[in-house]
Amino acid sequence: MQKKWYYYRVYGLNIKSDIEIKEFVEINNHDSIQVTICYSEIPDRIINKFREGNVCDINDNDIWFNIENIAVYHVKDGNLINYNPYENVDFYYLKTFIECTCLGFIMLQRNKIAIHGGTSVINYQAIIITGEKGAGKSSLTTALREKGYKFISDDIAPIEFGDSIEVNPGFPYQKLCYDTAKKMEYNPDEFFSFMSDSEIKYLIPVFNDFQSKDTELASIFEIVKGNVDTVIIEEVKSSDKLANIIKNIYRGEFIGILGGMKPEYFKKCLNIAQKVKMYKIIRPYKGFTVDDQIRLIEEKVFTRGKNEIIYKC
Questions:
Q1: pLDDT by residue (tens digit) across 116-157?
Q2: Domain count, the chain
Q3: CATH number of the domain that 291 lies in?
Q4: Is residue 64 part of a domain?
Q5: Domain range holding 47?
Q6: What is the DSSP string of the chain?
Q7: pTM of the model
């Protein structure tokens, strides 16, 4: 029986897959495939490593990792993702690690920068909302979308370099934790739920708000919590800018294990730092301040070029 293949484009990559990933955007063009996703057996060498208690085997362009009760995954040469599922695996969990971690490794292997954060469109240009876990990235990108701004990606912002620096689109879904879903007045019971790293998340379809084309990157906003009474925004400059970009690389914690940052990759980070505005949004630890954050972001996006130091809201 001939194997059925599915064809998608996500994160700027043309993908051929032997499993259906309904969240991804389908394409009719079956040429120029850059990444193949397919089932594969596991070599004895890797099986023995996992039996010894290892959960991964990582080399520069050859990565194996084992997610207990889900699957063993193999990411190779920036163009191949193999999976071997456990018996009776929940299919959604199987593909979740392909959508996120595996494609994150693919981009690292391809020297393709991806920033950990959501992306929205304001004034016809992309802005990336980044920050540590729990900073409020999803709340802010959801509120921007609810206000009418287009949505490009949920958690991964892949960067494309050409005549301008652009963000490649992800797929038209947002993953929200319970608290964020409730704050944004969604009924969690109406949406598919799954266990993320440490909490339950809900998959929210956003087809009508999704921008499916590469969009020029204007600004990066990093959200942090601080001992402040009101939301503060300040521009990040000089070496701090480059450091913040590198700090917020998606799956950047693995760069050292993969042999360190390559010169080509570093130059791309430097290019972003030189050409893209970056701001830090400091919000109070307590309170729901999303409206204030949006107001300050809009000020920056719509008034670029004016003298700017620190604004409060």
A1: 999 999 999 999 999 998 898 999 999 999 999 999 999 999
A2: 2
A3: 3.40.50.300
A4: yes
A5: 6-109
A6: -PPP-EEEEETTEEEEESS--TTSEE-S--SS--EEEEE-PPPHHHHHHHHTT--EEEETTEEEEEETTTEEEEEETTTEEEEEEPTT--HHHHHHHIIIIIHHHHHHHTT--EEEEEEEEETTEEEEEEESTTSSHHHHHHHHHHTT-EEEESSEEEEEESSSEEE----SEEEEEHHHHHHTT--GGGSEEEE-SSSEEEEEE-GGGB--S-EEEEEEEEEEEES-SS-EEEE--HHHHHHHHHHTBTTGGGTTTTTS--HHHHHHHHHHHHHSEEEEEEEESSS--HHHHHHHHHHHHHTTTS--SEEE-
A7: 0.92
